[in-house]
């Protein structure tokens, strides 16, 4: 099979929108609970999964790439649906769902990026996003589930930094970094004069 591997500029932008919106929600929500994490992650999974899946279905490209994008989008949708189905399932479920999603989709994105870095101008961006997603999984797994650290805020009120706060904070930071990178990548594709974004790139499936 032969076909296009160029990524339309609006696909990264569409992926950036839910990430940036949810990063803002997490940033301005005082209580970083597991319920907030599952709810926002669920919305992210459904939105970004739908974008990736539609892009895969519309792409007339290399069979392997289309199939892997389909898997990536499908896993995101399933993970998002699972999170929204039981938003009160607690922190262990959030960690399990989030790390499973991040490891699988992160390595898929990494593989697609490495595979297409010479023929696809979005390849290097995929490598960055894939690596960032795998790092999210590692960072979440390093958070002790029972972690609690009490402290007194600048206003003199006693507070506690918990594992849920850290995990949801990491998720929000991931969305902010990924969202900004996707916006830059999308605009770069839109304004690029790189022939890889303007013409059909052909190669073996």
Please give a structural write-up.
This protein has 205 residues and is mainly alpha-helical. The protein has one domain. It is 70% helix and 5% strand. It is built from 7 helices and 2 strands; from the N terminus they run αααααββαα. It has a two-stranded antiparallel sheet with strand order 1-2. The radius of gyration is 18 Å and the shape is elongated. 40% of the residues are buried.
Structural class: mainly alpha
Nearest-angstrom radius of gyration?
Answer: 18 Å
Q: What is the overall pLDDT average?
A: 86
Question: Into which percentage range does the β-strand content fall?
Answer: under 5%
Concise synopsis of the structure shown:
The chain is mainly alpha-helical and 205 residues long. It has helices at 10-27, 34-58, 63-85, 91-116, 123-141, 163-191, 195-198; strands spanning 148-152, 158-162.
Structure characteristics:
single chain, 205 residues, mainly alpha, two-stranded antiparallel ribbon, elongated
Note the topology.
Blueprint: H1 10-27, H2 34-58, H3 63-85, H4 91-116, H5 123-141, E1 148-152, E2 158-162, H6 163-191, H7 195-198
Antiparallel strand pairs: 1-2
């Amino acid at each position: 099979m032969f076909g296009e591997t160029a990524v339309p500029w609006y696909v990264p932008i569409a992926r950036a929108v839910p990430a940036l919106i949810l990063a803002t929600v997490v940033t301005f929500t005082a209580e970083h609970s597991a319920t907030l994490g599952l709810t926002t992650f669920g919305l992210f999974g459904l939105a970004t999964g739908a974008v990736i899946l539609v892009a895969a279905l519309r792409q007339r490209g290399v069979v392997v790439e289309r199939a892997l994008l389909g898997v990536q989008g499908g896993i995101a949708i399933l993970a998002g649906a699972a999170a929204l189905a039981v938003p009160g399932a607690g922190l262990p479920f959030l960690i399990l769902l989030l790390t499973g999603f991040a490891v699988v989709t992160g390595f898929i994105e990494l593989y697609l990026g490495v595979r297409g870095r010479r023929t696809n101008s979005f390849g290097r961006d995929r490598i960055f996003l894939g690596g960032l997603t795998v790092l999210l999984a590692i960072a979440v797994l390093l958070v002790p589930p029972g972690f609690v650290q009490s402290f007194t805020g600048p206003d003199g009120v006693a507070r506690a930094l918990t594992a849920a706060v850290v995990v949801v904070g990491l998720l929000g930071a991931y969305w902010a970094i990924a969202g900004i990178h996707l916006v830059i990548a999308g605009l770069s594709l839109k304004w690029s004069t790189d022939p890889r974004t303007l013409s059909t790139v052909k190669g073996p499936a």
